[in-house]
Amino acid sequence: MAREQWGTKLGFMLAAMGSAVGLGNIWRFSFVAGNNGGGAFLLLYLVFVFLIGIPLLLAEVSIGRKAKSDVIGSYQKLAPGTPWFLTGFFGVFSAFLILSFYAVVAGWSLYYLFHYVTGDFFQAPAEGGYEGAFGGFITQEWQPLFWSALFMTMTIVIVFSGVKKGIETANKVFMPLLALLLLALAGVSLSLDGSMEGLSFLFRPDWSALTQPSIYVQALGQAFFSLSLGMGALLTYGSYLSDDKRLPGAAVGIGLMDTFFAVISGIVIFPAVFAFNIDPSSGPPLVFITLPSIFEQMPLGGIAGLLFFFALSLAALSSAISILEVPTAYFMRLFRWSRTKASVIVGAIMFFLGISVSLGFGIWSGITPIGERNILDSMDYIASNILLPLGGLSMALFVGWYFTKSTALKAVDFGDNVIGNVWYGLVKYLLPVMIIIIFISSIL
Ligand code: PHE
Ligand code: NA
Questions:
Q1: pLDDT tens digits, one per residue of 393-433
Q2: Could you give the C-alpha distances from 413 to 11, 68, 240, in angstroms and in order?
Q3: Which spans are transmembrane here (predicted)?
Q4: Which of 29, 249, 357, 424 is 20 to 30 Å from the Cα of 365, by its Cα?
Q5: How far apart are the first and last CA of the chain?
């Protein structure tokens, strides 16, 4: 059977944007920025997105498009008989880690959506408000697992429906809707009393934060996570792209779109954080408490909440399918499994791994694998701050050092001109050096 392909280049763009824009922009961005001092973090994050993220995104997609295979197979095909393919395992491994916790958080989003549909969340719950309601929900055993299972099922269904009919079609609807809603919310959040404090937290860098070594790893990890980089999600999506579709514009478009969503959600969240006296470093629950509080203040806020959690769930779904696709594509080739079989088995394993993540907010909250981090934070830390940058490093080294210069330029549709040389220099020298330095400094 012939390998699947995107219907159009726009379809690819939307799918890649769908992969990039997700919980990372709203949920993860806001609590990581909140933990790392706001403005200085945002600045560093932007530097990494433009200097490392977008050039690497181009490299990653080009590997897939050139090889037309999954994240491990691509290395085997382009560098036969070498150990390069081993670095592809970083990607498959991070896919398992990331989707296991991603599906738990996406399950929370579905739960909120449900309570907006029924109208329960139009007003803050009587006891303990949204904070109490959220805490009461995530500490339970069965309820969160139910929502996470539902989310994983939807992800699997889209992935086994195929690249074009499933993934491409879904993304065409989700993205524009999410953009509209976030813009409207930003307007409301800015009108709250005390919104200036939130804005200055986000946009006025406290330079002293830059002396904290951990902020560099965190900003790099956030750039990789948010851009879907280093795992092979974009490599795999690139492998369904034919050679006549030009890459550079697409890479820049995907990067800009993702950054736009991150900055806008910062503008939505932080004014509200300060207006409602919530601690900006309250971690993963942050958006699940601030956002409903904003909606409650709005005229027709219940409807806005409903639409928002609908869009957030869709954004999560369009990212989750790209994560599931990484091991699915690998197992389809390796074991000659059908798409259905591969996606169901991989998705089920991820769901089971996710059970520990969910219980980590309740009966297993005493389990802290890395430092003070609970199970979700530990898995997230290993995947986002270690495995994704390592996967990205190997892609940069592969394109910069294993390919000849003319092969590399041709792979990304650049000529031997100024832009081409700047990109090549970044990928070959600056990117690996920066990733390695940040890495070593975080270990020390
Ligand atoms: N980029 C997605 C988000 O921001 C998450 C993701 C990470 C998707 C890695 C694919 C690969 O939500
Ligand atoms: Na993102």
A1: 999 999 999 999 999 999 999 999 999 999 999 999 999 99
A2: 19, 16, 17
A3: 12-30, 42-63, 84-111, 145-163, 175-195, 215-237, 249-278, 298-324, 344-367, 382-403, 423-443
A4: 29
A5: 50
Q: Is 372 exposed, middle or buried (0-12, 13-18, 19+ CB in 10 A)?
A: exposed
Tokens read off for 243:
């050679």
Task: Quote the ipTM score.
Answer: 0.98
Q: Is 24 in contact with 315 (CB distance < 8 Å)?
A: no
SS3 370: strand
30-67 burial: b if 16+ Cβ within 10 Å, else e: bbbbbbbbbbbbbbbbbebbeebbbbbbbbbbbbbbbb
Task: Count Cβ atoms within 10 A of the Cβ of residue 119 and give its class: 0-12 exposed, 13-18 middle, 19 or more buried.
Answer: exposed
Residues within a 6 A CB radius of ligand 1 = 19-20, 22-25, 98, 225-226, 228, 231, 233, 319, 322-323
**Rounded Cα–Cα distance for residues 400 and 396 (Å):** 6
Domains located in the chain, CATH noted: 9-443 (1.20.1740.10)
